[in-house]
Amino acid sequence: MFNWIYKKSKETQLDLSHIGIDLHSHLIPGIDDGVETIEEALEMIRFFQSLGYQELYTTPHIIWDCYRNTPEIIRSGLEEVRSAARAEDLQIRINAAAEYFIDEHFMDLLLTGQEMLTLPGNRLLVELPYSTPLLNTAQTLFTIIEKGYKPVLAHPERYTYYYSDPSIYQQLCAQGCELQVNALSLGPYYGENVQKMATWLLKNNLITFLGSDAHKIQHLQQIGLKNKQKWLREYPFKNEKLLHV
């Protein structure tokens, strides 16, 4: 009697196999504000696989005031997730980098040449404060490049202090920074203003990568629903170029 519900669910789910690889999620239990249990992680990995993803880079927060994650902590958690995924015979490839909050600890890591966990192509996923802009964002991104990394700025559409002059994003891209938009920002999840900024960035061809930034299964369920989010299907995201790199 419930076949019609199942059929509707299957019909409304997006096929994101053309994206191929997700570069931003929080799937390692208990080390940041992402999943809390391995069961939650597995549920999300199954959902990623159902959307057509072939590879995941989970990216735990490194924010020294909140989440003092190190490469050793992240790799240990990654192995736990991988082991559980293998036991479930999940075929999706799982790797880990990190989402680095640009703070004093990050700058110390960068300037002293300590190990950084990167996305394919020696890319560093970085995030800015939400409430107050850094005084030297452009110089910091230049230093990242100078040290041999390629900066990828996470969810630029959510930094509201740039809304008054979004040309800053054009300047950052011209400097060599790549921008990663959150899939949920293409709909109303974070609010109308975030959606408008995400749309502006896409219309101006400033976005390089799509990321889920999934912290829980509900995020993926929202992404998986077909609606008027034509950008998920039509914009030339470059995720797939990083598959198996």
Q: Can you describe what's shown?
A:
The chain is of the alpha/beta class. It has one domain (21-242): TIM Barrel, CATH 3.20.20. Helix content is 37%, strand content 13%. It has nine helices and nine strands. A six-stranded parallel sheet has the order 3-5-6-7-8-9. The chain has a three-stranded parallel sheet with strand order 1-2-4, with helices on one face. Helix 7 links the parallel strand 8 and strand 9 (209-211). Helix 2 packs across helix 3 (71-87). The chain is globular. The N and C termini lie far apart (46 Å).
Average pLDDT metric? 92
CATH topology annotation: TIM Barrel
Structural class of the secondary structure composition? Answer: alpha/beta
Going by CATH, the homologous superfamily would be: Metal-dependent hydrolases
Give me a quick take on this structure.
The chain has 245 residues and is of the alpha/beta class. It has helices at residues 3-11, 38-50, 71-87, 104-111, 137-146, 167-175, 192-203, 217-223, 230-234; strands spanning 21-22, 55-58, 61-62, 93-96, 99-101, 123-127, 150-154, 178-182, 209-211.
